[in-house]
Amino acid sequence: MTEREDGQALDEGGLPEGASCRIDALAAAPAYRILGEIGIGMDPEGVVVDPVLERAYVACSRSNAVSVVDLERMAVVATIEVGQEPIDIVVDTATRRLFTANARDDAVSVIDIDQGAVVATVPVGIYPAGLAIDEGGRRLYVGNTIGCSVSVVDLDRLEVVATLEAELGAGAVVADPSRHRLYCANFVTSTVSVFDTEQLVALEQVKVGEGPCAVGVQAERGEVYVVNCLASSVARLDADRGEQTGELFGLGAPVGLAVGAEGDRLYVTNRGEGTCSVLGLDGREWARVPVGTAPGGVAYHPRDPRRILVANAGSGTLTVVELDLDGPPAEVVEEGAHPLVGRRIPEFALPEVTSGELRHIGEWAERKYIINFFASW
After folding, report:
1. How far apart are CA 282 and CA 248, in angstroms?
2. Angstrom distance (rounded) from CA 329 to CA 279
3. Among 6, 75, 310, 353, which one is most buried in terms of CB atoms within 10 A?
């Protein structure tokens, strides 16, 4: 056992004592390096970084808590209990507060970063799952999945000031303050609801691919990006015309999205294959980074945008990746088949939702179908 200069005990591998972390010095490609994979809690989903304290905050949905990760030590340093099933998390840098969407409490928890504790709870719609923040407009937007709505919360008064009607499966939301627009992905109806944030009224519903579950905006280009989980695609929308202009296929059940700070790329997590894709805004894939099992939320470090963090719901870990990509690679990333393609489907049976009758997988042999385990808990 040794010690760092600051007195922190190190194990035989030179890592902080007690850190659940792996260092991958031999990455599979020169475009990235895996800095660590940290055990953080049960079913982590949303992740955000506080650049002041150099810490990541991860909403662990089945732990009913937020894990606080020291990004220098690569270790969990605190756990903050919140409401039931926190899914998404965002930060208000002006007040140094975190907000979590607690799906089974129909509420948002407010955490004071410096105190490391919950200081308020805001009731919202039914099953909140998505959050978006407009610091300039001092508003928090909450996508309520079962409530089919978006709650508008005043960031300073911490109260709901309006409720906008969306569609079934409303969840992921993103704001574009430059255009006074809000976009809400509706998972069940495969649409995106567009709202005017000045008048707080609905403008239109844009049809996208099946199962939209993440949405992001690149205001300078006037583009909105929608991750369609069931279609395994990312759709591109024109922010001014409100229509789809393109769609990229070939991803592995994508669920998470972050628009890169560099203004030229997207980070998309592929839940079905345990990877994170780096996509150019033209749809070309620059790299596909192996992370943990069933990745969801993805974020970049505000002071070091090439360091990205991926919350892995299946493995209960946070993967920290360092990228070395100034632009698209000389060669296009080859799309290989998933290792399970071509293997026989295991025998199983499940009861039908309406009748309760037991149905066997063999009944659908040689037919196309979708099995959705997206939120089986």
Report:
1. 9
2. 11
3. 310
Q: Where are the domains of the chain?
A: 29-323
CATH of segment(s) 29-323: 2.130.10.10
Question: Among candidates 137, 119, 158, 130, which has minimal Cα distance to 59?
Answer: 130
Q: What are the angstrom distances between the C-alpha of 223 and each of 73, 102, 291?
A: 37, 29, 28
Residues 156 and 139: their CA atoms lie apart, in Å, by 8
- pLDDT single digits (tens) 47-103: 999 989 999 999 999 999 999 999 999 999 999 999 999 999 999 999 999 999 999
Category of 358 on φ-ψ map: left (φ > 0), alpha (ψ -120 to 50) or beta: beta
Q: How far is the C-alpha of 292 from the C-alpha of 271, rounded, in Å?
A: 9
Q: What is the mean pLDDT of residues 303-313?
A: 96
pTM of the model: 0.83
Strand pairing report for 317-323 and 233-238: unpaired
> Which secondary structure element, helix H or strand E, spans residue 146, and what is its range?
none
